[in-house]
Amino acid sequence: MCTRLSIYDDCTFAKVNERFLAHCKPFSCGDSDLDDFFLNDALAYEKDLMGKTYCWVINDDITKVVGFVTLANAGIQTTHMQNNPKRHLHKNISYNKQGRTYPAVLIGRIAVAKEFQGKEYRIGTQMMDFVKDWFIAEDNKTGCRFVLVDAVNSNRTLQYYERNGFKPLFPRIEDEKDFYQINGDDLKTRMYYFDLLLLK
Question: Is 155 in a helix, a strand, or coil?
Answer without folding.
Answer: helix
